[in-house]
Amino acid sequence: MIKSILVPTDFSKQAESALKVAAQIAKKNNATIYLLHILELPMHLTDLMSSGTPAPAPEAIFFMKQTHKKFEEVLEADYLKGIEVIETVSFEDVMHGIIDSSTKNNVDIIIMGSHGSTGFEELFIGSNAEKIVRTSKKPVLVIKEDCEIFEVNDLVYATNFDDEDKPCLLAANEFAEAIEAKLHLVWVNTANGFKTTYETEEKMNHMISGLTINNYTLNIYNDNTVEKGILNFADSVNAGMIGISTHGRKGISHFINGSLGEDVVNHAKRPVLTFKI
Fold it and tell me: What is the rounded CA–CA span in Å between residue 218 and residue 186?
């Protein structure tokens, strides 16, 4: 069950999309939302706040009041009615603020919006969502598009069916149950890491045996790369969401170049849910 959700916000349209999704999941699970804003103060004020000074500088008080006013405006939204939303502020940088807040509040999941980037842009821009995916020990759900109604009937979970992925698969199944979605487990077969159908099915059945998952399908999908295979398979079943485990930089073990989790987050139009192995 999902009991607590962390939603980082910079009060942008993308952050609001993530909050709308969090609200719909919170209502289904009677969960609490921690709404986090990273308050980026000028350096001298950040140093002052972190030093534990009992009386914050007037400028810091001004920024905090402005942030609180924005929070109050957000909380007036109809889609948040009936949900416990806890206001929280961090003076750290974005990555550390989100990771530390998720640990401190012991949340079950982080839901965040992403502007996303494609092509050469991603080499220069970088994405906070990608950094969180790479470092968070909590599951991270990245929302790309505006989700007025978050209704996911089918969740694709890409796995190499290794034993180390079992905890992540079970977490994906738990999430699928929480949002009442069917789980589609997929192995992407590529020329680089080719396995016969017999080998793959044997590996699938070995991993699934003994696991308490019910509403699922097993699938083998052939493609040029693992990333393309995941995205194309998700298209083929019209999935509402993609799930994937990640080692951070390494990605799932049969994908060598770069981080598969980050690449899928970067290029998928669908929401992507990542789990750290």
Answer: 6
